[in-house]
Amino acid sequence: MDHFDLCIVGAGVIGIAIAEAVARSKPPSYSILLLEKNASFGQETSSRNSEVIHAGLYYQPGSLKARLCVEGNTLLYDYCRQHDIAHRRLGKYIVAQEFELETLQALAERARNNGVLDLHWCDRKALREKEPLVEASAALFSPNTGIVDSHGLMHSLLTQAQMAGVEYVCRTSVERVLCGAKGFEVHTVSGEFGQSEAFKFQCNALINAAGLEAQTLASRIDGIASAHIPQLLLSKGNYFKLNGRPPFQHLIYPLPAAQTSGLGIHASIDIGGAVRFGPDIEAIETVDYRVNVERKAQFVEAIRRYYPSLDPAQLVPDYAGVRPKLYSATGQAMDFVLQNSDIHGVPDLLQLFGIESPGLTASLAIAKTVAQQLS
Fold first, then answer.
1. Which domains does the chain have, with CATH numbers?
2. Is 79 left (phi over 0), alpha (psi -120 to 50) or beta?
3. pTM for this one?
4. For residue range 8-25, what is the model confidence (pLDDT) as tens digits?
5. DSSP 3-state of 185
6. Does pLDDT of 193 surpass 70?
7. Counts for the chain of helices (H) and strands (E), in that order
């Protein structure tokens, strides 16, 4: 039976980043297997988002999201420069209407508590000088917010990982994991439908970075109590593209609506310069990547609050993503969950749950944290 020192399940940006970080921290003799159920890497949450490099403004001070986002922001910009990954430090305006000014001030205070000290307050006149088509009473400007080519980032990380000896295998699903005194016996099925083949191997350590499938994988690991598997709630985020000349030079975000876990329907700009709006928050039961065109009216209403001259005819469906959200018993959005044996009791097993936004920004910081735990 084949044997590996480490198996990582899930080749989204988190799994790939972990593979690259661990491979760099271990000797060449340390064997790493990276498994992906899809035909290629990063086909789910990692590539169906706004591709924004967040600065770390929104998250609860002291949380993993706050700490890893702020650290990941620096690591990600550095990596992109070193490896020539397409990215742009565009800056972002978080805009507020007159009745929202206290909420905007509270966000500025939270950002300071998270160590984000470069925000600038803009009144209506200063905002209009930079973004003439944006309507707001005031705004916070975050100069350290940007965008990145997520596919280029993942391709680079995977290339670096493979050069360091990581073995990457796609079209492979984990069916069962047996826990023993000397590690894990992993049972998989590989190949296309109708041409699949069962394969099993052993590994000393296992990392569950399966994203939307993390809970499903956890349920297939013998010895993991259901109490240690947080409930997954799927949240679709629809995006609409703006046809025509881009109206903004920066990212434009409204304030997050109260009692929601998203950042609001914002305007982002991709590497090619096109403007898209989204995501919204649509609770779904099963993964579905079709854009819900019936939500266009809600988009138009939300966007016109800060971009009143929007022509609805220019707004067309673009794509959708699905986020693996976690909520507490009281309905509050939960932090990232990095679960080790101190919690679930299985040695050498690390599980990652609820890695949604700002997961892309935090990916290298998450990978660094995981690599340190394995050292």
1. 2-47+152-230+336-374 (3.50.50.60), 92-143+233-325 (3.30.9.10)
2. alpha
3. 0.96
4. 999 999 999 999 999 999
5. strand
6. no
7. 9, 20
